[in-house]
UniProtKB/TrEMBL annotation:
Binding site for Mg(2+): 193, 224, 340, 342, 437-438
Cofactor note as given: Probably binds two magnesium or manganese ions per subunit.
Annotated ranges, domain SAP: 31-65
Protein name: DNA-(apurinic or apyrimidinic site) endonuclease
Assigned EC number: 3.1.-.-
Organism field: Mikania micrantha
GO-annotated molecular function: DNA binding; DNA-(apurinic or apyrimidinic site) endonuclease activity; double-stranded DNA 3'-5' DNA exonuclease activity; metal ion binding; phosphoric diester hydrolase activity
PANTHER family per record: AP ENDONUCLEASE, DNA-(APURINIC OR APYRIMIDINIC SITE) ENDONUCLEASE
Superkingdom: Eukaryota
Region span, Disordered: 1-26, 68-101
Amino acid sequence: MNTSSSIQPEETIIKGKIAENSSASSNLDACEKMTVQELKTKLRSIGGSTKGTKRDLINAFRKFFDEEVEDSQEIDEGEESHKLNQVEGEKGSKKKAESSCIEQHTEAISTVPVDKRIKKRAKKTTKDLDITLETSKDTEDCNKNDISEHEAEPWTVLAHKKPQKEWVPYNPKTMRPPALNGDTKHVKIMSWNVNGLRALLKLESFSALELAHREDFDVLCLQETKLQEKDVEAIKQRLLEGYDNSFWTCSVSKLGYSGTAIISRIPPLSVKYGLGIPDHDSEGRLVTTEFDSFYLISGYVPNSGDGLKRLSYRIADWDPSLSNYMKELEKSKPVILTGDLNCAHEEIDIYNPAGNKRSAGFTIEERTSFQENFLKKGFVDTFRKHHPNVVGYTYWGFRHGGRKTNKGWRLDYFLVSESIAETVHDSYILPDVAGSDHCPIGLVLKL
């Protein structure tokens, strides 16, 4: 940031602004071009008279300007920087964007510090002490450009109700490492809760071929396919060329519900469905494939539901059973668990932590269970390991249009055995891929 320019929050810009001593005549010329309402607004903010004709208002402003500029004093740049750093949260994001835009126009804007009398007058509405006579047109234009950029890529906005100073928004364009060269043996795995596979495939905007070409994944794990067993063969006929190995499990206790799958161009050594526990295996929530170097599990962890009616089942039965199953597999080779794990583990993983303490997916019970049954058992959250202070979401509710404003949750994970955590080259999110209330996530593992 160029600290030599006076960059102030919106309230100060609107309240009125004055320019440098050497630019007094040009500032007064600007007054001539203002409307009566604009002049009244400016004068009201600095305690001047707002009565009379336009000429009276201009004279009042001229009188004020002549009196106040004479004994103005400069504000320390360090103090200005400190005050700018006090702008927080969503307002902070907006004002930082505004500040950036104003910097682009500093050549056309002249500024002057103000004296103690102006400080007192401004105190009621703002702590920022520089006032300029610039109209807000340039700022508004910049804001429009900034908003349009964020509308196209809303995930680049730090959307969080309780942000910490070191947190930054996730941007896959800048935060993903360079692709591995062809000499480095690796596997790329993607995972996606599609929230109904048949509905997704009907969308004109969705192209599985496009996604495959862009990401060139080796394995694709799906959750919440909502398929019935009778649908699977027809879906298999529509698979991308080269991905000839697919394994599907469907809910039999509730049709058109849950369901997971693994689609791969690498033939697995073995395949297993479920946990091997009848009480847990009727909803089609797990598929496990064994490859040369690891086991891969596509999982869809049960949601605790409205009123947390399944919370007890989730934390007392499902999580411990899945954890034990993974530890048993780990005796043979490392394990990768991916999918919708239905838990935002930390406050950084959810837009509104305070408002969701008793919401399914963010209760203290679920978060503690996630910690005890997975992280403390030696499974590593790869995205958080690679991006410790990054706010990145994978789920945005349809109901409130959260995706447009990036008000989301991080519910989708790649957890890996600690023994292979250091061989993870990339753990990433693809927030630009629409079609579901979740977006895909990816993992690049060096072999």
